[in-house]
From TrEMBL:
It comes from Undibacter mobilis. This is Metapyrocatechase. Pfam families: Glyoxalase. Residues 21-128, 164-279 form the VOC domain.
Amino acid sequence: MTAIGGYVAPTASSDEFGIHSLDQFVLAVPDVNAADDFYTNFGLNMVRKGNTLQLKTFGHEHAWGSVIEGKAKALHHLSFGCYAEDIDRLKKRIEGQGIKLIDPPPGFESNGFWFRNHEGILMEVKVAPKVSPDQKAVSEWNTVGPGQAAATTRAASPAVRPRRLSHVLIFTADVLKSIEFYERTLGLRLSDRASDLVAFMHGIHGSDHHLLALVKSSAPGFHHCSWDVSSINDIGLGAMRMHDKGYQKGWGLGRHVLGSNYFHYVMDPWGSFAEYSCDIDYIPKDDRWPSADHKPEDSFYLWGPDVPREFTLNREAGEA
């Protein structure tokens, strides 16, 4: 296992310890060029690094995600960032749960340690700068006064540029067991859940309402990555552009209940989704969010179109 050394990170301001960020997600797909086309049109800055395609946002050097080539689309691993003073404590806590640490997969450098979760998903915890936000993201609600036109023509509309990764949602065969796993290993906290169908978890050092979300399925897998944009107008423009580029399946425009964000999801070439998200709830590091168990039929979305069937399918589990 690669040793940790030569890395100075910010310090935590809390006696509690846990990861502070979802550093990146990594997908394996059968055609990296298809991923390049999809995420480029989505508004991300795609950077090739060897055999890896990095998902960056414009004006930000951090790689929020990566795509590698594989036989079939699959969630390769999730990487979480922590403060330097927490890495050893997290390692001991995870090993104390009887979880075996493993070597990094070929082609991946490590500034931390690796293991598999209770369902076999590969995970990394590493020392890294905090990339989850330290305050609620500013959203734009611009309008103009009388005698002025607020909208541009379609031809003059600006490109949509997501600002950062907000969260990922993954499938799990047991939502309640997964909540317990991430609480006792990574130090995540439950924000809200809806029965045993879906749950949302946040970081203890300040994060969006959820940096990791869980949804019930027959097996683990990747459902969507969510990207923060500055306005509902950006959501609409992004959805229009993706439709014009041939990515016409998805769900939105709507507003969620748990997290409160406005959304539009676009289906990728492998049956999972990328979400434009705006104005999600924020949980400061000193707050205790009043987590609750909500009725599923009353907490999925506040308004929006009917949920398409394909939105619920776990393609990695062979659902069709």
